């Protein structure tokens, strides 16, 4: 698959490492000049240390150019930038699987979400561009755990929510190919619980000394 990642921060890096591990191709775009190039160079350096040539599958492009012909578009940007991006791209995202990864946390207090009651960031994105097939994923996985690909010796669980079965299936395949376990939580409205759950997960990092390396995992 061809996967476009919009954003070149730490979460984008973790997702890119897993996608490359699944032998898929990546296009990366970022609004900040030079940031996507630095991101791609970092992936190349990591691949070189690991004796892997997968970074050759990373192309830097503008947002519109990167999206064209992509199978999946991952929005690895802070809230509410994803909503603006899907609105601006309009018809270019028609029928495209769009992955929302953000957590709309009020970082000034770390005590609430910025979305209105009964609404998630993922649903806002879907409303901004109804032609896109929006899936919530990767919002409960921290970057360091994604880079490692596991937590506590076990594969990461990646929780998915979406209304389009084929779009969820495509994202689930990316997750599985990257050595992780997809967990389908149901329709897109379940993103509300996923975002709230991750807020709780974030607030526990300091008290439990987790150092942003933990992950949410379902065990039998």
* Number of DSSP strand runs: 10
Helix content, binned percent: 25-40%
SSE pattern = EHEHEHEHEHEHEEEHEHH
Q: Which ranges are low-confidence, i.e. pLDDT below 50, for 5 or more consecutive residues?
A: none
Largest sheet descriptor: 8 strands, mixed
Can you put this structure into words, describing what you see?
With 220 residues, this protein is of the alpha/beta class. Helices cover 39% and strands 18% of the residues. The strands form 2 sheets. The protein has an 8-stranded mixed sheet, sandwiched between helices. Strands 7-8 form a two-stranded antiparallel ribbon. Helix 5 links the parallel strand 5 (97-100) and strand 6. Helix 4 (81-89) packs parallel to helix 5 (121-128).
